[in-house]
Sequence to fold (374 residues):
Amino acid sequence: MYAMTTCTRSYNRSKKLNSARPMESSMRIESAIRRLAMLISAAFLFAGLAQVPAQAADPQPYHVVARWRIGGDGGWDYVTADGPAHRLYIARADRVEVVDTTTGKLVGTIGGMHRTHGIALDPSGRFGYITDGDGNAVILFDRSTLATVESIPGGSGPDGIIFEPATNTVWAFDGHGRTATVIDAATHKVVATVPLPGKPEAPAVDGQGTVYDNLEDKSEVIRIDARTKTITATWPAGCESPSGLGIDAAGQHLFPVCDGNKMSVIDTNTGKVVTNPSIGDGPDAAGFSDAHHLAFATSGDGILSVVDASVPGYPTIESLSTEKGARTMAYDPTTDRVYTVTAEFGPRPAPSADNPRPRPPVLPGSFTVIVIGR
Fold:
């Protein structure tokens, strides 16, 4: 009986072990299948995520972040940003208005002029220069007090103006006279008048002694040696009626903006046009961000165009709607912000012999600064 009991127990134990093995094998297979399914799902998920970045990247890196209602009467022209001082200078008819960019409030006015156009700032932070087009003068002002220091006689109809740091000179481009008036920033005296082969528009400098300027009526860009005060090259702009001019000094490229919804990219070593990115209609100003390798253009149809200068082809990566009439701009690299200005308009007057292309009047009190940032 003992022997039989032992045999029975051994048989039962063996039967249990044998019956357990298929169950364990089945569980292993099921576990393996589950793991394989998870791996396949993860692979599909990873493949899907690999395609996401192009869709997930913000297609509009810049946005309108504020609108500052400044008011006042009259039109406007160039806008200049003083990032370190948190100020924005705006040429408005017979004056220049100064806005605090930390509050959006008007903090002062530089008046007593006939028709203002451009504003240039010296790197010391002490002085600024304003072109008074109808006064045929360049107005020197103190940036701390906004008081006029001196009226410097200029050429006929000074318009665009820029400070050239390598020679410590100020260059005022005379639209009617087709000359460039050169002012020594140390003495505030005119030291040269450079004849130009066409009607000048916006200038740019590379910081190393070279000045560039658009010739609007010739659809050309000129290069000037600031030391010898001579024109060293004349190049096709690559588009019609260039107005605003941006510069990538480190990358050695110019960005004139033109009619026909075009910007040109010009190699400053060769003068060759690299490409023509698309921009808004009726541009009047351009800018460049050295930190982000982006070119900007503002146009009268109310578009800020952003062009990526870091990749071949210079694609237009953003066409941001602002407001109609916001055609001039200033870029502040200290805050990575673009400032543009516009107003509300009344009905356009009928054309006349004296004014065949009249502009619609600005409605009083509607002038606004549009602030654009990331």
Q: What stands out?
A: The chain has one domain: 61-373.
